[in-house]
Specification:
The chain has 376 residues and is mostly helical. Helices cover 72% and strands 0% of the residues. Helix 6 packs antiparallel against helix 7 (130-138).
Length: 376
């Protein structure tokens, strides 16, 4: 039936399609259709606290995996993703990776902060929250980056992927919200980020462990995406305000984060700007960040450094922020390749080939000059 191929054709499909499927099941459940409830009752399903019967709450392994498993599966994904964060990179790739990660983060942080100041950090213009903006703008699609730099960039561009993998997960968003005044105690960071750190440690200590856990980085995604969607209502994806906010979020991600990264490359004398525009996307993984932030808020509330009401605000943002980030993921997947193609044409007209390493070009020029001098 080519189900996997169909999913792969959707930008961020491994995350977005199961998320929508989970939301669809949950939406039908919330309609409490009589014939479905009668069927579930006849099967011996226990009613929920409201006296209704729901397929997603039938108990057992089914409910544990498809309804209640989002946090556990998300933690497992972060663990496996952490194991793939290779800290052994070359000098040129290291420089580019640091420049891209830093400038993309600062762009997302600045836009999120300005958006919150000018409107509201929770329900800002177009319904965009500071959390959604920072989560979407600071986390790029690593697979797309590797593919685009492999086609239009050079070796060190592709190598920068190892550093860019550090932005996978909620760390940068948590850090930004903390700097903006959110009372996340140290234990909240540890509780949420420890799976990433342990995975990173094991993956860098033993290549066999890294290879063993590599499959988990993609295998777990559709499962936690479905469970995450099972807490959402499909109507939110068809809300014009959410769709509009997601598209605006995508445009800001491409234009502001891409522009900031390209400017940073120019300031640090990098000739090609293929890598900055290849990284100007929203990762499908970023859809899970609001749920991770809500988990950190729960820890903060339990430690007394955040009120229950403040923690509930973050929980209330999960559904709408996840939907907005999903839309941004899909939209940037179409926009970023176009931006890279335009950047490639622009710099080729100025004699810059993105596939050539700058130091290689210098060596070639120097060799040509030396030959000409000898012949002269």
């Amino acid at each position: 039936m080519k189900i996997k191929q169909i999913i792969d054709r959707v930008p961020g499909g491994l995350m977005v399609v199961p998320l929508l499927a989970g939301a669809l099941f949950n939406t039908v459940d919330q309609l409490h259709l009589p014939f479905i409830m009668d069927l579930l009752k006849s099967l011996g399903v226990a009613p929920n606290e409201d006296g209704n019967y729901e397929f997603m709450k039938i108990g057992g392994f089914t409910q544990a995996l498809f309804k209640d498993g989002a946090s556990t599966l998300c933690a497992l994904f972060l663990f496996c993703a952490g194991s793939q964060m290779n800290l052994r990179v070359g000098g040129k790739a290291l420089k580019k990776g640091v420049l891209l990660t830093t400038s993309k983060y600062l762009a997302g942080f600045a836009i999120g902060m300005i958006w919150g100041i000018l409107s509201d950090p929770v329900h800002g213009f177009l319904g965009l929250s500071t959390m959604a903006i920072i989560a979407a703008m600071t986390n790029g699609n690593g697979g797309m980056f590797a593919a685009l730099t492999g086609q239009y960039g050079n070796r060190s561009d592709v190598g920068a992927t190892a550093i860019l993998s550090l932005n996978d997960g909620p760390f940068f968003t948590l850090m930004a919200l903390g700097m903006m005044g959110a009372n996340f105690p140290l234990i909240a960071f540890i509780a949420v980020l420890l799976p990433i750190l342990i995975g990173m440690l094991l993956g860098n200590l033993d290549n066999e462990i890294r290879s063993f856990l590599a499959a988990g980085e993609t295998l777990v995604i559709p499962f936690f995406a479905f469970a995450l969607g099972a807490g959402m209502n499909l109507a939110s994806f068809f809300n014009p305000e959410v769709v509009g906010a997601g598209v605006v979020l995508a445009l800001m991600t491409v234009l502001f984060s891409g522009g900031t990264m390209a400017l940073t490359f120019k300031l640090f004398r990098e000739k090609s700007i293929i890598a900055p525009w290849a990284e100007a996307s929203t990762a499908g993984n970023a859809v899970a960040t609001p749920a991770a932030i809500a988990a950190a808020a729960t820890v903060a509330s339990g430690s007394g450094l955040m009120s229950a009401a403040d923690a509930e605000v973050y929980h209330g943002l999960v559904a709408v922020a996840s939907a907005q980030i999903s839309i941004s993921t899909i939209t940037t997947a179409f926009l970023v390749p176009i931006a890279v193609i335009l950047a490639d044409k622009y710099q080729r007209r100025r004699g810059i080939d993105g596939k050539v390493e700058f130091h290689d070009e210098v060596q070639t020029t120097g060799m040509k000059t030396s030959i000409e001098e000898n012949l002269g």
